[in-house]
Write a structure and sequence with these properties.
With 1151 residues, the protein is of the alpha/beta class. Helix content is 29%, strand content 16%. The protein is globular and about 105 Å long.
C-alpha cells in the first residue's frame, strides 16, 4: 500500500516553492545578496516544467517503482529549495535588525542554488524517459487549491449516531458489565474483536459513558496499547487515569504495588484498547493487580486479533462484523447528507447506494467517505469515487479494504491538506494531541505558508484541522487534557496511511536497538535508552537536512540516558536546519548548551518538564522561534535579551518559578500565547508592558497584582483591547504586609477586560468592593466566574445579570454577611442567573443570610460548605436542581427541593424535607440529627433510591425506630455509621436488590436482623462494631451463598484467632482484615472450607504471629500483608523461617 499513496502531496509543496520564487520579498533578498536573479527565473521555469507532469506522475507511481523514486527525488529537491530559501530570508532579516544596510555577497547561496537547479534539470530529463506527459491543466481539480467550507461537520465523542447496527452488541456488553462475577480467580474480561475500522472503540466509548455504567463502577480507566507492548507505560497510564499521582521510577513491581493498593476493595472498570501483541505471560504479569478489585469489577479489551481473546482468558467475546447493508446505508446517509433525507437528492442517492454496496460495511470507511462526499455536490464527483480503481474490495482482508478506502479519501484531499496530514507520520499510535499544539507544529514546518488566501496561518491551520476531523481522520479523545481542552487521536489505520505517505522522510526510532536512518529523513521521533542512546544520536547527527526532532528519555535514574552538554553540542552543531526540537519530559536535561544558537531556522522548542533551571543568553538569537514551551520547568527568570525573539508567538510559563518578566517584553508584539505575566517591582515587569500585546489569546494569568501601585500603569496595560483572550486569571499575592485596599480597588477598576472574555478568576483581592464592569452586563460572554479569598468586599456586584454565566464559585469572602437583591440586580426585569448551572459557596465564615425569591431557572448543582453562621435559606424554586450538597452549616434552616436526584447533608442540624424527592437516587446523611419524619420521607415509596449512606461523624448517635427499607426496591448500597441500638429494626432480608452493606462505628450493635441478610448481598464490611464482632457466631453468614467479599476492621477483644469454623460462607473470594490489633492467629479450620477465596488481605495487625501452619486455601492466588511486623519477618521472601508455607501462592505482597 505504501506505493499507493506515497508522494501524493508533492504538488502543493512545489506550488509553495513557486509562490515563494514569485514573491517580492524573495526577489528583494536575492538582490540584497547580489545573487543572480536569472537563477531564480531558471529555478522557477524548471520547477514549473516539473509541475506540469505531477498529476500523471502521482497516478503512475502506483504501477511504476521508477516513477515513485522520481517523486521521492523531487520531494528531496524541494526540501532543499525550501531550506535554502529559509536561510536566505533569515539572514536578510537578521541583517535588517542589525541595521546592516550594505549589500552582502554570499557565494555559498549561489553555488547551492546552482546545484539545486542541476538536480531539478536531471529530473526534467528523466520525466521524458519515464513517459510522463504534461497536463493542460496542472491545477489538479479538487486537489491543489484549498477552499474553506462554510459548513464542516465536527465529530462528537461517543456519538450515538456513529453506532448503527450495534444495539445488540451494546446491550450485551452492558449486561455483562452489570452482572455478578463468575467466581473465577480473576477480574472477568469481555473482549470486543473486529478488524480495523469496525467501530470497536466507538462501541466501547458509548458503553463506557452509559449512565448505568457510570453509576455502577467506583473507578474507571481507559488505556491504549497498540503496536508496542510496554507493561510499565500501560501501568503508569492506568494509575494516572484513575486520578492518582505516580510513584517515581520505572520499576514495574513498585508501580503494580501502588496500583494494587489503590484498587483493592473498589469496583472498577478498565478498558484496554487496541491490544495487538504480547504473550500470555506478559498479560498475566500486567493484570496481576487487577485480581484484587471488589466484587463486580470488569475489564473490556478491544482487539483486531481473535487470538488475543484467548490470551486474555476472556469470559465473553463480542465479534464485530461488517454492518448489514441497511445499517451501512443509514450510517453513510447520516454523514453524506448531514442527517437529511437522501431521497431529496435522487441523483446522488442511487450513486451513494452503489458506493456503500461496493465498500461493504466497515463503519470507519463509510463514515469517512460520507463526510468526504458531503463536501462534493455534483453526481460527477460521486461517480468519480464510485469508479475509482482504489475501491475494488473483497471480503478476504477487511483491514486492507479499509486501508484502500482511506487511501482513496486521502487522494481527494486538497493538496495543501495532504502535506499537513503527512506530518502525522511522526506520532506514535498511542499518542494524543491538542489542536493548538498540532497547528503550531504545522506552522513550524512551514506547512501553512504561502497560500493565496487572505487568512493567517492560524486560521488556515484551524480550517485544515477541522477538515481532517470532519472526515474522521482525526477523532476526539475520551479524556480532556490540561484546562479541560479536548484531546484528539488518529485511528491506527490513519497513522499507517500517514507513514506510507511520508515514506523514508519520516521515522520513529523506538526500543532497545539501533537502526539505520535514511539520509533523506526529515522528521524523527526518537526514544533514547541508556544502552544505545548515544549511538542513536550519533546516527541522527549524520542526517544534516533534518527538520523535526522529538527526543524522549527511556528508563529512570541510572537506567536513563542523560542528554548532557556534550551531546547537545554535537546535536546543535550537526542539525543546523531543525525547525522543531522537543525535549519534553527529559528530566535529566538540566542545562541547555550555548550552541542552541546554531539552530537559526528553529521555530518550535519544547523544554517542558525538563530539569532546566535557566536558559542561556544565546537562545535570544533564534530569530525564527515562534513557540517556546517551558511548562513545569524550574526556571526563575528569562534571559535579559529575551525581547530580541521578535517572531515569538507562543510562550508557556505555566508551573514555573518565574518571579519577574524580562525587560521590554512589550516588544514581542506577535505574542499570541502568554500564559503568565508576573508583575514585579522593577520597570521591566510593570503591568504596562502588556500595552502592545493585543494579539494575546487563550489564557492569561496576571500574578502579583499587589505590585501595581499606580492606577495609570493599569490603564496603560490596555486589557480591554485584548479581544482574543478567553480566560483571565487575576491573582494578588497571598501574603501582604501593607493594607492597600484602596489602591487595589482603583487598580482593579481600570483593569477592565474585553467583553469577549469567557472565564474570569479573581484571587486574594483586598479591595473593599468589586469593579463596576463585573456585574453591569458588560461581560456578556462570561461563562465561568471564580471569586476566591476576596475577604474585604462586603457586597457582591449584580452577578445575576450576566446572561451567559453557567458556573459561579465563591470561596472565603469573609466580608460578606448578607446576599440579597444586589446579588441579582436591583429592579431588573431580567430573570437573575438565567443560564447558571453550577453554584458553589465555600468557607464563607461571615455569611449569615441568603435572601432569594427568584432566579436560578437552570441551576442543576448547588454546593454550600463551611458556612457556620448561615441561618437561612435556600432559594425557594429550583426547577432543574439535581444535586444538592450542604456540609457543616449547623445554623442553616432550610427545606430540601422535591426534584433532586442526589442529596448530601453533613453537619446540618436544621435542614429538613417537606416533600418527598420522588427521583432521589443517592442520599448521604452524615453528622446530622435527621428528623425522623424527614427520613421517613426519603424512605417511604423511594423506589428510585439506589445508594443510602446515613451516619454521624460528630458524636451524635443514630436511633430511628422507623428506619424501614421495604419501599426501597432499587436500593443496592447501604452504609450506616454511629448506630446506637443493639439491633437493626428494619427487615434487611426484604431488600432483595441490596448488594453492599457497610457498618461503621456502631458500637452498641450486637446482631443482624432476626430474619437475616439480603439474599443477594455480595459485599459486607464491618468497622468498629465490637459488640457485633463479639457475637459473630450468631451471624448466620455460612448459608449466605451470595456473599463474595467480607471485610472487618476491629480490635478483636479477648480473641486469639479468626475466623471460627463455619463462620464464613464457602462462596467468598475476598477476605480483608484490617486494624485488628488483638488478632494473633489466622484459624486454619475457619478457612478450610473456603474453596473459592482468591484474595486474603491483612493490614495493620501488629500482634498477628503466624498464618496457619497447615497452609492457606489452595484456591488463594493473592496474599497481601501490610504493617504486620511479626508476620513480615517470619514470612519474608526466601529468607523467612515460614516462607516455604506460602511460596506456592502466585502473588505475595508483604510490606
Amino acid at each position: 500500500m505504501a506505493a499507493t499513496v506515497a508522494g501524493a502531496f508533492i504538488s502543493s509543496f512545489v506550488e509553495m516553492i513557486l509562490e515563494r520564487l514569485a514573491s517580492g520579498d524573495f526577489r528583494d533578498n536575492f538582490s540584497r545578496y547580489k545573487l543572480d536573479v536569472g537563477l531564480a527565473d531558471k529555478l522557477g521555469i524548471t520547477l514549473n516544467s516539473i509541475n506540469q507532469v505531477l498529476e500523471e506522475a502521482e497516478q503512475m507511481q502506483y504501477k511504476s517503482t521508477y516513477v515513485k523514486k522520481w517523486l521521492d527525488d523531487l520531494k528531496h529537491a524541494v526540501y532543499e529549495a525550501d531550506q535554502i530559501f529559509d536561510e536566505i530570508a533569515t539572514d536578510a532579516q537578521l541583517n535588517k535588525l542589525k541595521d546592516e544596510s550594505e549589500p552582502v555577497t554570499n557565494t555559498t547561496f549561489e553555488s547551492r542554488i546552482k546545484e539545486l537547479i542541476e538536480m531539478l534539470e536531471l529530473l526534467v530529463n528523466q520525466k521524458l524517459m519515464l513517459g510522463l506527459k504534461e497536463s493542460l491543466c496542472a491545477s489538479n481539480e479538487g486537489v491543489i487549491s484549498w477552499k474553506s467550507s462554510k459548513e464542516l461537520p465536527t465529530s462528537s465523542l461517543g456519538n450515538k449516531s456513529d453506532l448503527c447496527g450495534r444495539d445488540v452488541e451494546e446491550e450485551e456488553i452492558i449486561k455483562f458489565l452489570l452482572s455478578d462475577n463468575d467466581g473465577s480467580n480473576r477480574t472477568p474480561v469481555i473482549t470486543i474483536v473486529g478488524s480495523g475500522g469496525m467501530g470497536k472503540t466507538t462501541l466501547a466509548e458509548l458503553v463506557y459513558n452509559d449512565d448505568r455504567i457510570k453509576e455502577h463502577f467506583e473507578h474507571k480507566a481507559w488505556v491504549y496499547v497498540s503496536e508496542f507492548f510496554d507493561a510499565v507505560r500501560i501501568t503508569k497510564e492506568i494509575i494516572s487515569r484513575l486520578g492518582y499521582s505516580l510513584a517515581k521510577g520505572e520499576d514495574l513491581n513498585l508501580l503494580q504495588q501502588q496500583l494494587h493498593q489503590r484498587i483493592t476493595g473498589t469496583r472498577y472498570l478498565l478498558v484496554i484498547e487496541d491490544v495487538q501483541n504480547g504473550s500470555g505471560e506478559c498479560w498475566e504479569q500486567l493484570l496481576l493487580p487487577f485480581n484484587h478489585g471488589s466484587f463486580g469489577s470488569k475489564i473490556i479489551v478491544t482487539t483486531r486479533d481473535k487470538e488475543v481473546a484467548a490470551v486474555m482468558k476472556s469470559s465473553q467475546i463480542v465479534h464485530l462484523k461488517q454492518l448489514e447493508e441497511s445499517d451501512g446505508w443509514n450510517l453513510f446517509v447520516r454523514h453524506a447528507f448531514h442527517g437529511k433525507n437522501a431521497s431529496e437528492y435522487p441523483n446522488l442517492e442511487s450513486i451513494g447506494k452503489k458506493i456503500v454496496n461496493k465498500c461493504g460495511g466497515p463503519p470507519l470507511a463509510l463514515k469517512s467517505l460520507g463526510n468526504l462526499l458531503r463536501m462534493k455536490f455534483s453526481p460527477g464527483e460521486w461517480t468519480k469515487i464510485l469508479d475509482a480503481d482504489m475501491l475494488p474490495l473483497t471480503d478476504e482482508d477487511n483491514n486492507l479494504n479499509i486501508y484502500l478506502i482511506l487511501g482513496l479519501i486521502y487522494h481527494n484531499f486538497p493538496s495543501s491538506v495532504k502535506r499537513c496530514f503527512a506530518y502525522f507520520s511522526i506520532f506514535p499510535k498511542a499518542n494524543c494531541l491538542f489542536k493548538d499544539q498540532l497547528i503550531k507544529l504545522w506552522m513550524a514546518d512551514g506547512l501553512l505558508k504561502c497560500f493565496r488566501a487572505e487568512k493567517s496561518e492560524k486560521e488556515l491551520g484551524d480550517e485544515f484541522f477541522d477538515y481532517l476531523e470532519s472526515i474522521s481522520f482525526i477523532q476526539q479523545s475520551l479524556y480532556p487534557g490540561l484546562d479541560n481542552k479536548h484531546r484528539f487521536f488518529m485511528h491506527d489505520l490513519v497513522i499507517d496511511l500517514a507513514r506510507s505517505v511520508s515514506g523514508e522522510f519520516s521515522l520513529r526510532i523506538e526500543g532497545d536497538r539501533v537502526q539505520d536512518i535514511p539520509e533523506r529523513a526529515r522528521h524523527i521521533w526518537c526514544s533514547l535508552d541508556w544502552k544505545y542512546g548515544y549511538r542513536k544520536l550519533e546516527n541522527i547527527c549524520k542526517i544534516k537536512g533534518l527538520r523535526s526532532l522529538k527526543v524522549e528519555e527511556q528508563g529512570y535514574d541510572e537506567q536513563c540516558f542523560k542528554i548532557c552538554k556534550n551531546v547537545q553540542i554535537e546535536l546543535f552543531s550537526s542539525l543546523k536546519y531543525l525547525r522543531m526540537l522537543t525535549f519534553y519530559g527529559c528530566n535529566n536535561l538540566s542545562e541547555l548548551a550555548d550552541e542552541i544558537s546554531n539552530l537559526k531556522l528553529l521555530c518550535y522548542l519544547d523544554l517542558s518538564y525538563t530539569g532546566i533551571t535557566s536558559l542561556p543568553d544565546s537562545i535570544c538569537v533564534l530569530y525564527n522561534l515562534q513557540t517556546l514551551l517551558l511548562l513545569g520547568c524550574r526556571l526563575t527568570e528569562l534571559p535579559s535579551n529575551f525581547y530580541k525573539l521578535v517572531n515569538l508567538r507562543h510562550l508557556n510559563l505555566e508551573s514555573t518559578l518565574i518571579s519577574k518578566m524580562p525587560e521590554q517584553i512589550q516588544r514581542l508584539t506577535h505574542l499570541e500565547t502568554l500564559t503568565n505575566f508576573v508583575v514585579g517591582e522593577h520597570s521591566g515587569s510593570n503591568i504596562k508592558e502588556l500595552e502592545k500585546l493585543n494579539h494575546l489569546r487563550g489564557t492569561l494569568c496576571i500574578s502579583q497584582l499587589e505590585n501595581v501601585t499606580d492606577r495609570a500603569d493599569a490603564v496603560e496595560a490596555n486589557l480591554k483591547n485584548k479581544r482574543h483572550l478567553e480566560v483571565l486569571h487575576m491573582r494578588y499575592g497571598y501574603r501582604r504586609t501593607t493594607d492597600g485596599s484602596i489602591v487595589e480597588r482603583d487598580v482593579l477598576e481600570v483593569l477592565e477586560p474585553n467583553s469577549n472574555l469567557n472565564s474570569l478568576i479573581i484571587e486574594d483581592y483586598r479591595g473593599t468592593g468589586f469593579p463596576h464592569w463585573l456585574g453591569d452586563c458588560y461581560l456578556l460572554n462570561l461563562v465561568s466566574l471564580e471569586l476566591n479569598r476576596c475577604g474585604f468586599c462586603f457586597q457582591f456586584p449584580p452577578l445575576g445579570q450576566l446572561p451567559s454565566l453557567k458556573e459561579l464559585s465563591i470561596s472565603e469572602c469573609d466580608g460578606i454577611e448578607i446576599i440579597g437583591e444586589e446579588f441579582y440586580g436591583y429592579n431588573s426585569s431580567t430573570v437573575p442567573f438565567a443560564s447558571l448551572e453550577n453554584l458553589k459557596f465555600d468557607n464563607m465564615y461571615g455569611w449569615n443570610e441568603w435572601l432569594c425569591t427568584k432566579g436560578f431557572p437552570s441551576l442543576t448543582f448547588l454546593l454550600i460548605t463551611e458556612c457556620p453562621k448561615l441561618k437561612r435559606a435556600l432559594p425557594q424554586h429550583l426547577p432543574c436542581l439535581e444535586r444538592l450538597v450542604i456540609y457543616d452549616c449547623p445554623e442553616l434552616e432550610a427545606s430540601i427541593p422535591a426534584n433532586i436526584r442526589q442529596l448530601e447533608l453533613h453537619g446540618c442540624v436544621n435542614v429538613f424535607i417537606n416533600e418527598l424527592p420522588t427521583n432521589l437516587k443517592k442520599a448521604y446523611l452524615g453528622g446530622t440529627r435527621v428528623i425522623e419524619s424527614s427520613l421517613e420521607q426519603i424512605l417511604f415509596n423511594s423506589s428510585s433510591l439506589e445508594q443510602l449512606n446515613v451516619g454521624d461523624y460528630d458524636g451524635e448517635n443514630l436511633e430511628w425506630p422507623s428506619f424501614d427499607l421495604r419501599s426501597c426496591n432499587s436500593l443496592c448500597t447501604l452504609s450506616i455509621s454511629g448506630w446506637c441500638s443493639s439491633s437493626l429494626p428494619f427487615a434487611l432480608n426484604l431488600s432483595t436488590n441490596l448488594h453492599s452493606l457497610d457498618l461503621y462505628d456502631c458500637r452498641q450493635l450486637k446482631s443482624f436482623p432476626q430474619r437475616g441478610l439480603p439474599s443477594r448481598l455480595s459485599s459486607l464490611r464491618i468497622n468498629k462494631c465490637p459488640e457485633l464482632i463479639a457475637s459473630r457466631k450468631e451471624w448466620g453468614l455460612f448459608e449466605l451463598n451470595s456473599l463474595k467479599e467480607f471485610r472487618v476492621s476491629d480490635d478483636f477483644e479477648s480473641m486469639d484467632s479468626f475466623p471460627e469454623e463455619n463462620l464464613l460462607p464457602p462462596t467468598l473470594n475476598t477476605i480483608h482484615l484490617e486494624n485488628c490489633s488483638k488478632l494473633r492467629i489466622i484459624n486454619y479450620k475457619g478457612l478450610l472450607h473456603l474453596k473459592s477465596v482468591r484474595l486474603l488481605r491483612i493490614e495493620y495487625c501488629p500482634c498477628l504471629e503466624r498464618l496457619p501452619e497447615e497452609g492457606l486455601p489452595s484456591s488463594l492466588s493473592t496474599l497481601y500483608i501490610r504493617e504486620c511486623r511479626i508476620v513480615k519477618q517470619r514470612y519474608q521472601k526466601e529468607e523467612g523461617e515460614s516462607w516455604n508455607t506460602i511460596c506456592h501462592i502466585p502473588d505475595v505482597f508483604i510490606y
